[in-house]
């Protein structure tokens, strides 16, 4: 019975680990709030253009690396949301390449009017942590690379203090 549980847990871990990595959509959820000239929340349907720049204010065309348009964005009580990467591509390809600079800025236009200032794009905690994988020769994390020697039926688990070997599901 123990061997069956180990196989089931190992299979679940494999599916969860690799299934999730295959399912990462190339989209970023973005939401904002718009108000009218009287500072009242808008209720409207607008066309919006989102673009990524390599400078906070310069408008030289070579500094614009990506742009897309979202038509008919519904604004309710000033709130709207879109998935960047799902609109009509105007310039460039939405993907990791446009985020290769540490100085990346998002510009938003509503019905052709550019909103100021541009917003700096920054990382989430998990993205910063994931960057460590880029530093590995083959971009993979294995027990050998982090100095853990897991036994049969154990899996690598990220804990609050670092990597450890344990069984799945892990309970400290």
Low-pLDDT stretches are: 1-23
CATH level 3 topology of the largest domain: Immunoglobulin-like
Topology order in helix (H) and strand (E) letters:
HEEEEEEEEHEE
Shape, per Cα inertia axes? elongated
DSSP strand (E) fraction? 25-35%
Question: First CA to last CA: what distance?
Answer: 23 Å
- What's the number of helices? 2
**For the report, how would you describe the main beta sheet?**
6 strands, antiparallel
CATH architecture of the largest domain: Sandwich
CATH class of the largest domain: Mainly Beta
Q: Estimate the mean pLDDT confidence.
A: 79
Q: Specify the helix fraction band.
A: 10-25%
Quick one: how many beta strands?
Answer: 10
Total number of distinct structural domains: 2
Strand and helix layout:
Layout: H1 2-22, E1 28-33, E2 44-53, E3 64-75, E4 79-84, E5 88-91, E6 105-110, E7 113-114, E8 119-120, H2 125-134, E9 155-159, E10 162-166
């Amino acid at each position: 019975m123990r061997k069956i549980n180990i196989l089931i847990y190992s299979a679940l871990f494999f599916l969860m680990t690799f299934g999730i990595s295959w399912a990462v959509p190339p989209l970023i959820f973005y939401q904002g709030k718009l108000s009218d000239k009287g500072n009242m929340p808008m209720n409207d349907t607008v066309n919006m253009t989102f673009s990524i720049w390599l400078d906070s204010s310069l408008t030289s065309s070579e500094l614009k690396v990506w742009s897309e348009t979202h038509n008919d964005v519904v604004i309710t009580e000033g709130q709207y949301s879109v998935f960047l990467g799902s609109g009509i591509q105007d310039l460039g390809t939405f993907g990791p390449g446009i985020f290769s600079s540490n100085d990346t800025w998002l510009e938003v236009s509503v019905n052709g009017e550019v909103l100021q200032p541009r917003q700096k794009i920054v990382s989430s905690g998990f993205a910063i942590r994931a960057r460590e994988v880029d530093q590995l020769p083959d971009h993979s994390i294995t027990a050998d690379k982090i100095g853990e020697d897991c036994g049969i039926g154990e899996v690598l688990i990220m804990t609050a203090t670092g990597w450890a070997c344990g069984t799945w599901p892990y309970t400290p």
